[in-house]
Amino acid sequence: MANVDILIVEDETPIREMLRMVLRQAGFEVQEAPDTCQASRQLSQKRPDLILLDWMLTGQSGIDWARRLRRDADFSDLPIILLTARGEEEDKIAGLDCADDYVTKPFSPRELIARINAVLRRFGKGEKPGILHIGGITLNPEEHQVKIDRRPVNLSPTEYRLLEFFLTHPDKVYSRTQLLDRVWGREAYIEERTVDVHIRRLRKILAEFGRDAMIQTVRGFGYRFTAQL
């Protein structure tokens, strides 16, 4: 990906080398740091387009550094993807409070690149998404068109963005606050209950095609979209 620079912060040399190879093969420019101290020095010299950050690092942890960056006016809007071996939903929710996405180890290079491009698109960079097909739902970003079982579906702009986000982030739990950040934008001043309203509307539309169960309520956490019904 020409002119897109990614900073890898990973303390395990073999993993860092693997990430460097995968990213360069995908066309990204790459910076590297083994810890948050060196990563901070590199940030002061050159701002990357995205940080690929290991959760557990020697010294300061990746998640603590991500929280610090979110409080820094110069870097609060810098996209961050956490790499983590933690699979519990509590950990995932905690990670998404300070990062834009997370990838659970072990992961495939294809999944990683797809996640990176999805985050970059939200920030106005990255490749344009192709046509999405999940569970009988087809979303064509270029035509801004949605079909279910090959039948056209009319969605409001917000419902479209919400469905597109779910289709590109299946089987993950997102809190209402996280959905507001990722669908409405961090600068939007909207109450959390607005998310519930649009979830209900989207479910009602999906129910017409027997797909409303694809949006699951995870009590105490938020919502998950899944095609595994």
UniProtKB/TrEMBL annotation:
**Residue ranges of domain OmpR/PhoB-type in the record:** 129-227
Q: Which sequence positions carry the modification called 4-aspartylphosphate? A: D54
Q: PROSITE patterns given for it?
A: OMPR_PHOB, RESPONSE_REGULATORY
Q: Which GO terms describe its molecular function?
A: phosphorelay response regulator activity; transcription cis-regulatory region binding
Give the location in the cell.
Cytoplasm
Q: Which stretches make up the Response regulatory domain?
A: 5-120
What the entry lists under InterPro entries is as follows: CheY-like_superfamily, OmpR/PhoB-type_DNA-bd, Sig_transdc_resp-reg_C-effctor, Sig_transdc_resp-reg_PhoB, Sig_transdc_resp-reg_receiver, WalR-like, WH-like_DNA-bd_sf
Signal peptide bounds: none
Matching NCBIfam families: PhoB (TIGR02154)
Annotated protein name in UniProt: Phosphate regulon transcriptional regulatory protein PhoB
Source organism per UniProt: Methylomarinovum caldicuralii
